[in-house]
Design brief:
By secondary structure, this protein is of the alpha+beta class. The protein has a seven-stranded mixed β-sheet with strand order 12-11-10-24-25-26-27, with helices on one face. The two termini are 28 Å apart. The relative contact order is 0.14.
Length: 496
């Protein structure tokens, strides 16, 4: 979240975390040299000896994609070996882009892998980079079939280390107060998700010169480096390494991945080059993206790009018509979906930021998205939409309305400085949205009612019938009990 409405939680900024410079695991023989001893400075991405590479598995509207980004000088793509239909296959990755200036000193490659494939490993002899992440070269693949769904989903959001440009705005303690690596490690080790959903905001290092972890992030140390590949690694790939090795990911765009004035380069340019549903090679950035309809077996995730919705968080309804068209597309896709649908959008439709004592004294977001849904041909989200997953506000919250409106989950508490939240008792029975509906239950995980949030992530599990939600803290421990989603389409709520 760029435009903060509520107070920065100092306690959250200063909380202890696993050091960002913790050593990487020993790589498998055949993938290059060993990592340096703890405490030493690694060479910047792209420097001798011939760079490093990062690989991960991402679900897109075009299916499961293995993606690979390298700073080695060969500008070649490796091959991936996997098993499908009882036979072993070896396929080369296709080159999407080659180095482009100092911001993008990389070769980007990807390949599609069929659902039900297993055992994906990059072929060592085809990897030219000196260091590979994950060091084993093994990449997670979906463990569900066309008729089933991921049983365990980890939800994270707003993960970067905040380093604003203005000197009078607080800089986060990236070395010892930023918890994203700890959250990602514990989500991988304790929750062991089948799928990870990131609800947006990856790149917070707007002025890397203010960072106190420069030694472990060479190449991301000056204002000129912001939104370059080295800063993408520093803010996302390096801390998320264990989690990316554990499960495929679905990635939504946040408002921090915005376009610059020329719509070339910038954080939005990095988004479209490395993380978007469809990658680009020319460095361009678009203000809007079409919804990405992503299938995870019988579960459909409809990702809406809300990065430009209410840019200043002041209640603006600009661009409402554009979002109405997007939610019409979502509803059309939901009508054809084989099972449950989750809407994934960085800015929420109905999150409550604050609530006073008098009736109606609630501050909620995001009016432009809520209005866009009301303007669709259905005037609401399709009945198959079971929940909305969002971030932007830096706390964990569940709202439901015990109506045809799906619950809103906000999980923006995975790294950035924490926001204050509402007093839940003041939220319930107050009306929000279009048309206004009473909040049936509000659960916001805060240190104190109305106080700062708690770092962590969401854990969604399917029990064979419906979805169960647990909020977890940075250590992977439960924050309260489990909430079970009703199966009714008329009374949609989590029973906690």
């Amino acid at each position: 979240m760029r435009h903060r409405i509520v107070a920065l939680a100092a306690a959250g900024v200063l909380a202890a975390a696993v050091p960002a410079g913790a050593a990487s695991p020993e790589p498998t023989p055949g993938y290059g040299d060993t990592p340096p001893p703890p405490g030493t400075t690694t060479p910047p991405p792209g420097s001798a000896p011939d760079g490093e590479a990062w690989a991960w598995t991402q679900l897109t509207s075009d299916g499961t994609r293995i993606r690979y980004v390298s700073t080695d000088s060969s500008q070649t793509c490796p091959s991936v070996r996997y098993t499908y239909g009882g036979s072993q296959h070896t396929d080369p990755l296709s080159r999407i882009s080659t180095p482009m200036g100092s911001q993008f000193p990389t070769t980007v490659c990807e390949a599609g892998v069929r659902l039900t494939a297993s055992g994906a490993t990059l072929v060592p002899a085809t990897v030219q980079a000196a260091r590979l992440h994950p060091s084993t070269g093994r990449l997670p693949l979906p463990n569900w079939t066309p008729g089933t769904r991921p049983a365990r989903i980890g939800v994270i959001g707003d993960t970067g280390c905040e380093l604003p440009v203005p000197a009078d705005e607080p800089a986060q303690n990236c070395a010892n107060g930023w918890p994203f690596r700890q959250i990602a490690d514990n989500a991988a080790a304790r929750t062991q998700p089948d799928l990870v959903v990131h609800v947006g905001d990856y790149l917070y290092r707007e002025n890397p010169a203010r960072a106190n972890d420069k030694a472990v992030n060479p190449g991301c140390t000056t204002l000129a480096d912001r939104a370059g590949w080295a800063c993408v690694v520093a803010d996302f790939f390096r801390p998320a390494e264990r989690l990316l090795a554990e499960a495929p990911v679905v990635l939504a765009r946040g408002n921090h991945e915005d376009c610059n004035a020329s719509q070339q380069g910038g954080a939005g340019g990095a988004w479209f080059r490395y993380l978007a549903d469809e990658l680009r090679s020319n460095g361009t950035c678009s203000l809007f993206s079409q919804p990405a309809v992503i299938r995870a077996g019988a579960l459909t995730l409809a990702s809406v790009d809300s990065s430009l919705a209410d840019r200043d968080d002041d209640g603006s309804r600009a661009n409402q018509a554009a979002y109405t068209a997007q939610f019409n597309t979502v509803n059309q896709a939901a009508a054809q979906a084989p099972g449950d649908v989750f809407v994934v959008t960085h800015k929420p439709l109905w999150t409550v930021k604050a609530a006073g004592q008098t009736p109606g004294a609630v501050t909620w977001a995001t009016h432009v998205l809520d209005g866009a849904v009301a303007d669709t041909s259905l005037h609401h989200l399709h009945d198959k939409v079971r929940m909305v997953l969002s971030g932007h506000f830096h706390f964990a919250q569940k709202l439901d309305f015990d109506s045809t409106r799906p619950p809103q989950l906000t999980l923006g508490n995975s790294g950035g400085p924490l926001d204050n939240g509402p007093v839940d008792g003041n939220v319930e029975l107050q009306s929000i949205g279009t048309p206004p509906q009473q909040v049936h239950q509000a659960v916001t995980k805060l240190l104190t009612p109305g106080g700062p949030g708690i770092f962590g992530y969401g854990d969604l599990r399917h029990d064979g019938t419906t979805w169960n939600l647990v909020f977890r803290d940075r250590d992977g421990d439960r924050l309260g009990g489990s909430c079970r989603l009703s199966t009714s389409t008329d009374h949609r709520n989590f029973v906690c």
